[in-house]
Design the sequence.
């Protein structure tokens, strides 16, 4: 892949770069991430080059330990890359500190996890609304109603996670992820804990979000059926992209 | 979210609230009891009705700490000072047998001139040398009736009367008996001097100073102002130590409670971080939770203190607990301060958690 990164100039705002041609939502160049386990360096990403355009639905597949989750964490700003460059919506994560990445994540990224990751003490309603509160714009009832309606969870809103099925919990998690209209939705094995029927429902939701609302989605999965829902499939092995 | 969190772990919440409540209760009760007893003692001395107290050189304002006898005949010289209406000698006896009591050995005729006389609720004045008068609080606390026998100072006394409280001590025996028991013949520990008018107090004190230059003189007004914990360094140190212990308890329990909360909620903190919650937000969640726990604890502490006071006074009628708004506010502020301080390190620790590690926490 040819470099899409232009050299930055002194007067450019910190953490923001220009991309040549059409601006992709994600662009990585020789992205590396190495974890330190005890006294041993464990490379998780060994030079990932990836470009994702706005509105794409991308599935990243690969065996366990290939670096899929690490890629998702780096693209979500949850962890800092060790080397290379990563631009998300024009923001260079390699040059942003933890607080800047947190702020970026708050406004631009939505996460859906395999284990739903709902707050157990809160009802579905509050689990969704808390994302709006954290974003700082307060509760938006109109947006809330439309998202709950779209995901078919209006009658489940006053239940706590333990009173919801896996599929319902994942739909609440998707609602929480998209309530603030993120530029990028990152899904980490969203159907990994679900049966076939619920998996299909969740994948349909993601498909609708992408098709009807042009939501950019990057989903990592083991499941070939789940991956087939995406427009594009990227395969990873040993911390590298092996096919695109 | 804060309410849901504290409801999620009711036992943890209960223990934290109780710790703060005990902290508030300890502060208020320790201060309330020490101040209450001091003020009640001072009021009783004021209740004698004198304007001036004359004590021998080196005598303490704490009557129980000194008997320091001086000749009773000094009273005759004091009576001759202009504007002196009455003088009564009192000999202090400190009984530590079966309780701690200050006993006044009183000369009934002159004591009546100064105080206006006892108000007898039951029984009457001394009939015999081994008669004793007790006040109503003592009688209630010790279930004493007229005619009962009290063993004090290794001597059996017959209760001749029960008098209204507020006349210096709770127990009174004849002065001659007190002198005999202590071997202080014709001696007294203090002279209470009553002026013809309180306005002459200063003039009379000046005259007494000329007459007895080395003696301890205090107007009752001055004595009342001195009977505060601020003038008693040891008592102040005691109160400070007890308050420190109470705040320490609250601090440690809240610290432990919030610390374990962070460990228990590591994954939830990771979730909040994935949603874009910054360090300040995470810290505020922890601190607000600690703040809410301490506010509930403070309210519980206030109610508990009020109830404990009722129980203490009903069980020990001679004790006085003085609860003040001033110390209630201080106890509340100390509890909130201690709680927030206790939650501060856990809050910082939570804010610093790595989001990826937190999300992977089992």
Sequence:
């Amino acid at each position: 892949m040819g470099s899409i990164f232009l050299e930055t100039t002194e007067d450019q705002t910190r953490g923001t770069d220009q991309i040549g041609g059409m601006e992709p939502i994600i662009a990585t160049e020789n992205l590396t991430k190495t974890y330190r386990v005890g006294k041993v360096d464990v490379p998780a990403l060994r030079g990932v080059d990836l470009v994702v355009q706005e509105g794409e639905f991308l599935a990243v597949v690969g065996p366990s330990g290939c670096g899929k989750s690490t890629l998702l964490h780096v693209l979500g700003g949850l962890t800092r890359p060790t080397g290379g460059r990563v631009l998300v919506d024009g923001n260079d994560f390699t040059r942003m500190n933890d607080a800047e990445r947190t702020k970026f994540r708050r406004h631009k990224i939505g996460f859906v996890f395999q284990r739903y990751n709902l707050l157990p003490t809160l009802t579905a309603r509050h689990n969704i609304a808390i994302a709006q509160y954290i974003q700082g714009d307060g509760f938006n009832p109109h947006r809330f109603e439309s998202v709950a309606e779209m995901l078919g969870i209006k009658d489940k809103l006053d239940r706590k996670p333990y009173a919801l099925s896996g599929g319902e919990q994942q739909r609440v998690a998707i609602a929480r992820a998209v309530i603030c209209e993120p530029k990028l939705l990152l899904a980490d094995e969203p159907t990994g804990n679900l049966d076939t029927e619920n998996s299909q429902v969740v994948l349909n939701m993601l498909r609708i979000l992408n098709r009807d609302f042009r939501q950019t989605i990057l989903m990592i999965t083991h499941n070939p059926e789940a991956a087939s829902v995406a427009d594009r499939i990227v395969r990873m092995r040993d911390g590298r992209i092996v096919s695109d | 979210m804060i309410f849901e969190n504290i409801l999620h772990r009711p036992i943890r919440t209960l223990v934290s609230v109780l710790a703060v409540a005990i902290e508030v209760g300890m502060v208020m009760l320790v201060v309330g009891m020490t101040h209450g007893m001091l003020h009640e003692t001072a009021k009783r001395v004021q209740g004698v009705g004198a304007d001036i107290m004359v004590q021998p050189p080196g005598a303490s304002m704490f009557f129980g700490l000194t008997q320091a006898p001086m000749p009773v005949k000094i009273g005759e010289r004091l009576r001759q000072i202009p504007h002196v209406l009455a003088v009564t000698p009192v000999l202090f006896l400190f009984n530590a047998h079966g309780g701690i009591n200050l006993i006044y050995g009183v000369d009934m005729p002159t004591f009546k001139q100064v105080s206006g006389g006892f108000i007898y609720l039951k029984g009457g004045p001394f009939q015999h040398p081994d008669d004793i008068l007790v006040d109503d609080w003592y009688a209630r606390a010790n279930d004493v009736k007229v005619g009962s026998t009290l063993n004090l100072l290794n001597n059996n006394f017959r209760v001749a009367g029960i008098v209204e409280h507020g006349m210096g001590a709770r127990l009174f025996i004849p002065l001659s008996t007190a002198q005999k028991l202590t071997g202080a013949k014709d001696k007294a520990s203090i002279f209470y001097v009553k002026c013809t008018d309180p306005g002459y107090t200063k003039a009379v004190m000046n005259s007494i100073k000329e007459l007895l230059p080395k003696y301890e003189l205090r107007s009752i007004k001055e004595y009342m102002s001195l009977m505060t914990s601020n003038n008693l360094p040891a008592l102040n140190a005691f109160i400070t130590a007890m308050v420190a212990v109470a705040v320490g308890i609250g601090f440690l329990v809240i610290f432990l409670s919030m610390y374990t909360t962070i460990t228990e909620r590591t994954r939830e903190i990771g979730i909040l971080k994935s949603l874009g919650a910054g360090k300040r937000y995470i810290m505020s969640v922890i601190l607000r939770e600690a703040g809410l726990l301490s506010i509930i604890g403070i309210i519980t502490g206030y109610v508990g203190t009020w109830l404990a006071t009722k129980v203490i006074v009903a069980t020990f009628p001679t004790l006085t607990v003085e609860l003040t708004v001033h110390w209630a506010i201080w106890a509340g502020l100390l509890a909130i301060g201690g709680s927030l301080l206790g939650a501060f390190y856990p809050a910082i620790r939570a804010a610093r958690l790595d989001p990826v590690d937190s999300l992977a926490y089992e």
In short: The radius of gyration of chain B is 29 Å.
